[in-house]
Amino acid sequence: MGASIQVNSAINEGSEFSFTIVFKKSPVLEIKNIEDKENNLEGNFLKNHKMAIVDDNKINLFLTKKMLENKGALVDVFEDPIKAIEKIKTNFYDLILMDIHMPSIDGYETTQIIRKFNKSTPIIALTAASLEDNEEQAFKVGMNGFVNKPYKLEHFFKVILNVIGNR
Question: Which end of the chain is more exposed for a tag (fewer CB within 10 A), N or C?
Fold first, then answer.
């Protein structure tokens, strides 16, 4: 990680350890005026935002699609990540919501493939929060946000607004 470690030690007096690590800035987009949007999660605040949901679970797809459409979003759904990748190559989306656990290829790998041809569309991880899932891994592969299932509606929409706020 490019860290440095320092040690100061004296016999019978003790030891002092310190270290320095430089981290890259998170890929999460900064927001202007997000407080106004966060305080008003009513109405069609996602009006005309085109979004893709990639999830192998039909119930999750249906529920997430309805939640987004109720806020005015235009939503495409994909059960198969390979089909989603092909569609994302040829269509513009303001946001991609990506399930982590899928049978053919997982959300991490799907995101890595998308990032080879599309580095700008925000991708939010959706996960049931198993021990293997973590935000660090999501950001490492190029995701811009992380939401646990089942969704807490207010948090879900705040994460979405955070990553699309400047678009």
Answer: N
Quote the tokens at residue 128: 């049931």
Give the global pTM.
Answer: 0.73
Gap between the Cα atoms of 26 and 33, Å rounded: 19
Give the CATH number of domain 32-164; options: 1.10.3720.10, 3.30.1330.10, 3.40.50.300, 3.40.50.2300.
3.40.50.2300
pLDDT of residue 148: 87
